[in-house]
From TrEMBL:
InterPro entries: Gal_Oxidase_central_sf, Kelch-typ_b-propeller, Kelch_1. It comes from Rotaria socialis. Keywords: Kelch repeat, Repeat. This is Uncharacterized protein.
């Protein structure tokens, strides 16, 4: 298996005893008395492991521009994508306890560069993207109990490469993306109780960016690509209570088609993506308590259009994608 091992520190303590022969002799007719003093020396050695990524089993099919969602049972659902010649509707499940992939029910539509969100009822919502028939505004629901997909309400517009985030009220925020080549600054909310979308407060126009729901319920949106052809490292925050977007500190690296994952400590891990000249393997962490970004261990392979999922044990599973050489059929774990 390939997983990221964080800098873990272990302390080893060694205790040594030294006997010093301090002898006091009393010359009497009866006996000679000798006193021995023992000195104990304690040495503590601190060992810090080197950060690295570890491989895990490959998916059944090479794919990129797909989505990955952590189900309530801990399995990872990978859906759709592109294999270099065609959009896919196949889906598969990853079992983190065994590292094994198994096929599950196919979506009704082939799609890639779509959005996916895990709803409070345990179902997975996928929306928009591109298919073999063009741009999509439709949406589907995956039911883990049956392994089947059903159609649900349509978005107000087609969206290629939008972001989506689950809000603490159970609704899903879908924002940005592309529509027939135009960069969208519109956003809409999916009501899981009715299955309908409604228009909401717009964000800045961009695509191939990421979104992460923080522990306080706000949504962090980062990097991407905009209508003037610029690679972005800008970051914005959506305030759930007010519906207002604000700008935050920039990432260290400009990137798009990357991934963002919320760790168990509340920080956000951004990994890979397409850089100005190459596929990136760099990764960085956002700390909501300070508002700052810091670099962390790099992946073994530069990849973009991959997926990243946070498993129940806190590890991050990065799957497939592509680089300048090939469509990837590999996975890595960040521990």
């Amino acid at each position: 298996m390939l997983g990221f091992i964080t800098n873990k520190t272990a302390a080893f303590t060694t205790t040594a005893s030294t006997i010093t022969g301090t002898t006091a002799s009393t010359a009497t007719a009866a006996a000679t008395t000798t006193t021995t003093t023992t000195t104990t020396t304690t040495t503590t050695t601190t060992v810090t492991s080197v950060s690295k990524w570890l491989n895990t089993n490959s998916t059944s099919f090479a794919r990129y521009r797909h989505t990955a969602s952590i189900l309530t049972n801990g399995n990872v659902l990978v859906a759709g994508g592109y294999d270099g010649s065609s959009a896919l509707n196949s889906t598969e499940l990853y079992n983190p306890s065994t590292g094994v992939w198994t096929m599950t029910g196919s979506m009704r539509f082939t799609r890639y560069t779509h959005a996916a969100s895990l709803l409070a009822n345990g179902k997975v919502l996928v929306a928009g993207g591109l298919s073999n028939i063009g741009y999509l505004n439709n949406a589907e629901l995956y039911d883990p109990s049956t392994g089947q997909w059903i159609m649900t309400g349509n978005m107000s517009t087609v969206r290629d490469s939008p972001i989506s985030a689950i809000l603490t009220n159970g609704n899903v925020l879908v924002a940005g993306g592309l529509a027939y080549g135009a960069y969208l600054n519109s956003a809409e909310l999916y009501d899981a109780s009715t299955g309908n979308y409604m228009i909401h407060q717009p964000e800045f126009g961009q695509a191939w960016h990421t979104s992460s729901t923080l522990t306080n319920g706000n949504v962090l949106v980062g990097a991407g690509f905009n209508s003037v052809g610029a690679y972005l490292n800008s970051v914005e925050l959506y305030d759930l209570s007010t519906g207002v977007w604000t700008e935050l500190a920039n990432m260290n690296v400009k990137r798009y088609q990357h991934t963002a994952s919320v760790l168990t400590n509340g920080k956000v891990l951004v990994a890979g993506g397409s850089g100005i000249t190459t596929a990136l393997n760099s990764a960085e962490l956002y700390d909501p308590s300070t508002g700052n970004w810091t670099m962390t261990g790099s992946m073994n392979i530069g990849r973009y259009y991959h997926t990243a999922s946070t498993s129940t044990n806190g590890n991050i599973l990065a799957v497939d994608g592509r680089n300048a050489i090939a469509y990837l059929q590999s996975a890595e774990l960040y521990e």
